[in-house]
Amino acid sequence: MVPQSIPIVDFANFKNDPKKVAQDVMEACKSIGFFYMINHDIPATDIDRAFELSKGFFDLPSDYKHKYLINTSNHGYSELYGETLDPEHQRQGDHKEGFNFRSFNSEGEPFAPLPGIFDENKKFLEHFSRSCHSTALQVLQAFGIALEFPEEVGGKDFFGDKHHYEGEVSILRFLKYPRGGEESYQEKVRAGAHSDYGSITLLFQKDVPGLEVQASRTEWISAPLIPNAIIVNVGDQMELWTNGLFKSTKHRVTFLPEHNHLDRYSMPYFVHPDDKVPLVPAPSKYVDQTYEKEGPVLTAGEHLNSRLNATYDFYDKEEEK
Question: What was the pLDDT predicted at 74?
Answer without folding.
Answer: 87
